[in-house]
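Quick illustration for those who missed Monday's session on complexes.
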Amino acid sequence: MSERRVAKVITGQPTSDGAGVRLSRVIGTPALDHLDPFLLLDEFKSDKPGDYLAGFPDHPHRGFETVTYMLAGAMRHKDHVGNQGELVAGSVQWMTAGRGIIHSEMPIQKDGLMWGFQLWVNLPARDKMTAPRYQDIPPGKIPEVALGEGVRARVIAGEAGGVHGPVEGITTQPLYLDVTLAPGARLSHELPAGHNAFAYVYEGRATFGPPEAAREVATGQLAVLGDGERVSVAAGDSPARFLLLAARPLREPIARYGPFVMNTREEIAQAVEDYQRGVLLG
Ligand code: FE
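Prediction with fe (iii) ion bound:
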């Protein structure tokens, strides 16, 4: 079986979003505009309230999915049709914005560590105007599996070690794993050939790829994986934690403007107009 090699290593860029939340943007920058169907990856991590208290007040989305995975801290989510919930440490919210949602994500805490990730996953043209859908997954509903000695993974979406993640019915068939390697541990994991894949290291460092082409990836760096059927990872003498994602590329034109991601400029103009007229739900 062919091993995936590291095609590119990207370092996240400090930026701010929402009402001034400091974060590191890893996908959705000049260095990596997108990795079809992944449109954006942000990591937010701070124990300084000034970095996160402003939160993400009301803003719209249309045409894709937002996936929030919390490691520490808690945010309250509310949308314009009255849905609300708490995004607590260890939970995932997979939100299919579809034809439109206006929502806010605001910190519940006043101090302490706030740490998590937001990923944007594109929707195919035929699903961009679908009805919005939430999959709110509490921490206890995300299975954790051993994938060999010293290797543990939380399975958010897709399958690992014979266990399926709780997120279902996503067209791009995503794999979303949160992997922890003990010092010296190794993982070899199958990834469907043809699916785009990346690993984002958020603690420690790890080496990705076959022995003859292994690349070390440090905290805050993302490895774009070339095509193949499996990926090999090894930790050094300290533990490593990383997200491992893969999904079927859509290979459709992308027209992107802020919180709207469609296929054509006309559809973007329509989204802006719908939002301004207050009829985002259509
Ligand atoms: Fe949002």
